[in-house]
Each structure stands twice: as C-alpha cells, then as structure tokens.
Amino acid sequence: EYINASPIDNLGAGSLPFVATMCPKKETFAHFWSMVWEQGSSIIINLTHERDRVGSGPSDKRERYWPPLDPISEKQSSKWPVRPLTLATESCEQVPSLLRFTIELHGPVPADGSARPTRTVYLYWYSRWVDFPSSSSIGARPFYANAWAVLHIALYVLDQLEAIGPGHWAICHCSA
C-alpha cells in the first residue's frame, strides 16, 4: 500500500516529528488510516478550506475521509484494515474555524482472532485555510490569516503532542 507522505524529523533539537501529506482521495482512505495506525499517531491536522471543491478528481481539493462518510465510502470501509469512528465534534474557542473531531480508531484484526485494538485520534480541521496561487500572495491579508491560524493551532496542539512524548508522529496535510 502506498500513501503520498513524507516524514519530517530533521527540524532541530526539540522539534516534534510529523508526517506531511496531501488530503487523502477516496482510493487512498484505507491507506491513510493504516498510516495513522502504523505511525502510532493520535493527532491529525487538516488544513483545507470548507469551500474547497469536494471530490477525488484531479482538480478537487478536499475529501471527507472521516465518519460520517459518503454511502459508497461507508460501504467500502467495512473492508479497510483500520476503521475510524467519529465519537464527538467540538469547536476551539482559541482558534476560530478550528474543529476537533474525536475519532476512535479500530486497528487491524489480530492474528489470533481477538478483538480489534482501539485508540483515540484527534483530528483538527482548520476550515478557513487559504491556498495561494503563487509566491506573490505572500504578504497579502489571507497569507497572514493563515500564518496566525497555524501558529495558534501549533500552540493549542503542542501541549497534547508533548504529553504524548517523543517518537509520536503527528499527521499534517493541506489539499495538495
């Protein structure tokens, strides 16, 4: 199985490692959740705009890869080795447009046939992320809005990442 993702662990002493990836497309939902499981990740940061075009076509920018899923993906998820189940959704007061989804992730079926192991994953979706067409957009108001949001998201999530401890890989993606 393949997922377009890059581990980033060389940012210097004290930096927490993370995986940079693109927003999963329907054909990679199962691979994405398997990567989350295999990396032991419990934090996903989704930087896509709520008005981005939804779909898995070449020009589509985002997908809903966590439950509730569309009917086709919901049916396919019964065959995924790792299955997500959304337990709760809440807003973040510190960062407008940041939602936190509490997801129970059910791991692969053990070889001995016992019950699937589970773990809790928090998916943070910043639904106001703005993509920029070129470097000339740097310095524009939306650029600074993104920078402010990313800084506050990092500060908000940092305590959770540090509590998890070293060796934990957060997952971060935008649309591309």
H/E element sequence: EEHEHEEEHE
Average pLDDT works out at 87
Compute the gyration radius: what is it? 16 Å
Number of helices: 3
Distance between the termini: 20 Å
Which outline best applies? Answer: globular
Number of strands: 7
Low-confidence parts, pLDDT < 50 over ≥5 residues? Answer: none
Structural class: alpha/beta
Give the quaternary arrangement of the chains. Answer: single chain
Helix percentage: 10-25%
Percent range for β-strand residues = 25-35%
Spatial order of strands in the largest sheet: 1-2-7-3-6-5-4
**Main β-sheet, in a few words?**
7 strands, mixed
List the helices and strands and how they pair.
Blueprint: E1 5-8, E2 18-22, H1 29-38, E3 43-47, H2 71-77, E4 83-91, E5 98-106, E6 118-126, H3 141-164, E7 170-174
Parallel strand pairs: 2-7, 3-6, 3-7
Antiparallel strand pairs: 1-2, 4-5, 5-6
Comma- or semicolon-separated keywords:
about 25% strand, alpha/beta, 7 strands, single chain, about 180 residues, seven-stranded mixed beta sheet
